[in-house]
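#onboarding

Welcome to the new folks! Below is a worked example of what a typical request in this channel looks like: someone posts a single protein sequence, and someone else replies with the predicted structure as tokens. Don't worry about understanding the tokens yet, we'll cover that in week two.

Example request:
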Amino acid sequence: MSTMTNQDIEMWMRFTESSRFQWRSDPIFESRGEYMFFYGGSKVGVYMHIDKTGTMTLGEYQDAVPHIGDALFCAHGEVPYRSQDEAFQHAVTIGGCRFLKDMVTIH
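Example response:
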């Protein structure tokens, strides 16, 4: 198990805080074949999580320091879709134009 350096922690805090005004996708979840989209910064925000089976969980988070994986999550709903692609299509509908723009814009 590797330990995060102070530089790693600072990088993750900047990354998480950058979601304050734009949707972000966490690359750690992506590396596991899942998706975690979040908006709101490091203190409080909203999220959409899509697991490998296509189930989407929607909710709020708080205290995402240094990164979203450390947040306290409060799920408000879970919807099973036939695939991740179908769940992502619904994420775009839920998140609207802002979500779509943020997902295709290179950060």
